[in-house]
UniProtKB/TrEMBL annotation:
It catalyses: guanosine(527) in 16S rRNA + S-adenosyl-L-methionine = N(7)-methylguanosine(527) in 16S rRNA + S-adenosyl-L-homocysteine. S-adenosyl-L-methionine binds at residues 54, 59, 107-108, 120. This is Ribosomal RNA small subunit methyltransferase G. One of its GO terms (biological process) is methylation. Specifically methylates the N7 position of guanine in position 527 of 16S rRNA. It is an enzyme of class 2 (transferase). NCBIfam families: rsmG_gidB. Its main location: cytoplasm. The lineage of its organism: Bacteria, Pseudomonadati, Pseudomonadota, Alphaproteobacteria, Caulobacterales. It holds the Pfam family GidB. Transmembrane segments: none annotated. InterPro entries: rRNA_ssu_MeTfrase_G (IPR003682), SAM-dependent_MTases_sf (IPR029063). It comes from Brevundimonas vitisensis.
Length: 187
């Protein structure tokens, strides 16, 4: 818990100058950000390696790396296309000695093989599936944190994608959803 709190303090400091998360969400850090991210571990089965696409402020990736710290074979790739966010993430990874690698680049261009691909607040499902497809094709399970419009996003995405999915309620927010995606291919 001390490492999670150290991350929270670094986030508060960095957020004052780079707006990583909505400042009104910081007082509810534990539920809104930490617990929201942590709940993914319960859906990942034996998944030890993760790619967090559009890692931004580190949700869910940094939280997952903190919780996986010390587990054999655990590693999280924090993928983001903006250099300033990557610098923040690298500072956190280094300071907290996390089993994580920061990747500054476009998610869909990476050749990383992982057990689980995830994202939170990155893009509507139709675009997010394009970012995640290379990981899913290499065998990753897709677990996405979505909001109250998750069902509408899935309907819109089916116009462009064929996939199987499950929609589960979030334990951190009654409006939130966890979306699992399998068998992903373009229409």
């Amino acid at each position: 818990m001390a490492d999670v709190d150290a991350f929270r303090l670094r986030l508060i400091e960095a957020n004052a100058v780079m707006n990583l998360v909505g400042p009104d969400t910081l007082p509810n850090f534990w539920n809104r950000h930490a617990w929201d991210s942590a709940q993914l571990l319960d859906h990942a089965g034996e998944g030890r390696t993760w790619a967090d696409l559009g890692a931004g402020a580190g949700f869910p990736g940094v939280i997952l790396a903190l919780l996986l710290k010390g587990r054999a074979g655990a590693h999280v790739w924090l993928v983001d296309s903006l250099g300033k966010r990557c610098r923040f993430l690298q500072d956190v990874v280094t300071a907290l000695d996390l089993p994580a690698t920061v990747v500054n680049g476009r998610a869909e261009d990476q050749k990383i093989k992982v057990d689980v691909v995830t994202a939170r607040a990155v893009a509507p499902m139709e675009r997010l599936l394009a970012y995640a497809q290379p990981y899913v094709l290499r065998g990753a399970q897709a677990l996405f944190l979505k909001g109250e419009k998750a069902e509408d996003e899935l309907i819109a995405a089916r116009k462009v994608w064929h996939f199987q999915s499950d929609l589960m309620p979030s334990r951190s927010d009654p409006r939130g959803r966890i979306v699992t995606v399998r068998s992903l291919r373009r229409v």
